[in-house]
Amino acid sequence: EKEKEKEKEKEKEKEKEKEKEKEKEKEKEKEKEKEKEREEEEEDDP
Fold first, then answer.
1. pLDDT by residue for the chain (46 residues), tens digit each?
2. Which residue windows does the record flag with biased composition (Basic and acidic residues) (predicted)?
3. What is the C-alpha separation between 29 and 22, in angstroms, rounded?
4. What is the extent of the structural domain holding 4?
5. Read out DSSP for 14-25?
């Protein structure tokens, strides 16, 4: 029974890690978007 609990905990941890990774990816995407917008603005306004 204890072993099962440990396994569950491990699974939870893995899930958390995946979530963190997803969040990081989202942040990266946001940064890319910001960068694009900035570049476009610079092009529009020399």
1. 899 999 999 999 999 999 999 999 999 999 999 999 999 999 887 6
2. 1-37
3. 11
4. 1-46
5. HHHHHHHHHHHH
Structure tokens at 11: 């699974």
Count of beta carbons in the 10 Å neighbourhood of residue 17 = 10
Distance CA 33, CA 35 (A): 5
Residue 38 tokens read as 């900035």
Q: How many domains, the chain?
A: 1
Token pair 């990081």 is found at 24
What's the length of the chain? 46
Would the CA dihedral through 26, 32, 33, 34 be positive or negative? Answer: positive
